[in-house]
Amino acid sequence: MINNILKEISSNSINSYIEKDLDDFYAKSSQHANFNSRLEDKISWVFAKNADWPNCIFRANLVDLNIENEILEIKKLILEGKAPNGWTVGPLTKPSNLGHLLEKNGFSNVYQQVGMAVDLKNIKNEMIYNNDLEVELVDNEESLEQWAKTVSLVFSVKVDFELLKFLRLQPEVKFYIGNFEGKVISTLMLYLSSGVAGLHAVSTLSEYRGKGFGLIISGNALLDAYKMGFYVGVLQASTLGERVYKKLGFQKYCDIISYELTE
């Protein structure tokens, strides 16, 4: 059963919250000097100079334009190294068939996630209490370095530490680490925007997976968000993650698909 607060919000609105939280994070990251970014009404992207993440085209609004010409123009920029080779398509994307048009023009569907939401007052507390994992809010650069190292290992990406230092000073951003037996083994970033609490970069070192640590750190961060006055939590999960996050009460609402130029 869908949670009470989500019953009062249309599915289209929930979809908007899910994607907009992600877009807002990209837009915030694009403000840093280490990124060559474009923020326009018709298309936006965040393009890292010295890192792999975040790095994508997003927030396409190509209605009333020659869409295929716009795609070909961006394709040219990607080939010239002037735009990121990653294009996120979600429920706010216009036109709604943009994914099909991208595939027609040499892009491939490389990664599919599900957009999920939960009523924070109904987070299943019994899933998140575990004395073995100590969840901490990152409040210094040493802990932030541990956060960056863990995310880099789990996702095999280069992270821009200067960006992380910038983000940690923003009121809408909270970084968390999970310590197990004195070792940082789990991380996430909480991004508070558009009236919702979004989970990003949730990671657990491979040798510690299957123990529920991802749920524990996620639940703790979401409960913190609820105490701060947020009532809806959102995230983008893999197919495996979808099954896991249903244990916290999350429901699927939309698909978020990543395309890359492969031709």
> How far apart are the termini?
44 Å
CATH level-1 class of the largest domain: Alpha Beta
Structural class: alpha+beta
CATH topology of the largest domain: Aminopeptidase
How much of the sequence is in beta strands? Answer: 25-35%
Radius of gyration: 18 Å
Element-level helix/strand string: HHEEEHEHEEHHEEEHEHE
Verbal overview:
- With about 260 residues, this protein is of the alpha+beta class.
- The chain has two domains: about 5-115, no CATH class; about 120-255, Aminopeptidase (3-Layer(aba) Sandwich).
- The protein has eight helices and eleven strands.
- The chain has helices at about 5, 10-30, 65-80, 100-105, 140-155, 160-170, 215-225, 240-245, and strands at about 40, 45, 55-60, 85-90, 105-120, 135, 175-180, 185-195, 195-205, 230-235, 250-260.
- Strands 4-11-5-10-9-8-7-6 form an eight-stranded mixed β-sheet, with helices on both faces. Strands 1-2-3 form a three-stranded antiparallel β-sheet, covered by helices on one side.
- It is globular, with a radius of gyration of 18 Å.
- The termini are far apart.
- The model has no long low-confidence stretch (mean pLDDT about 95).
